[in-house]
Design a protein that fits this description.
single chain, alpha+beta, 4 helices, 7 strands
């Protein structure tokens, strides 16, 4: 039984030689955020920050209640189905799918379907979970 109150799913890619427009051309989706190493940008906290590495982020909308299988599928369906393009990107950069979420209670769990796990494996994408107990969301 899934016990998340809300969750977000994003594809994150980073690398010192990453050029966002090149990743966009290969994967076919426009990122919500993309910078090259050394680029100055305004961070979420409102301050100017210099990027320590190149970054590319796709996806990231919060959903409540979440449905992780669907959210992951939607992020990946917004990008190419060409596995050679995925291998080009994942062999060159640090790439992973990030799931952020808040539990309904202090403990809980979640399940991903075999189909979702196959989508990730086919693209050589690990998944990272960053999950919090309810008090963290107050």
């Amino acid at each position: 039984m899934d016990s998340l109150q809300r969750a977000t799913v994003s594809l994150l890619i980073d690398g010192d030689d990453l050029v966002p427009s090149e990743v966009t051309a290969i994967l076919g989706g426009s990122p919500q955020f993309g910078v090259v190493k050394g680029e100055v940008f305004v961070a979420k906290h409102g301050k100017k920050t210099e990027s320590t590495t190149g970054k590319w982020r796709f996806g990231g909308d919060w959903e409540s209640p979440p449905h992780l299988d669907r959210q992951i599928s939607e992020v990946l369906s917004g990008l190419t189905d060409d596995m050679s393009s995925w291998m080009e990107v994942t062999s060159r950069y640090h790439c992973y799918l990030s799931v952020g979420g808040y539990f309904n209670d202090w403990t809980g769990g979640m399940t991903l379907s075999p189909e979702t796990l196959k989508l990730l494996a086919d693209r050589n994408l690990p998944i990272d979970f960053d999950l919090y107990a309810p008090a963290a969301s107050d």
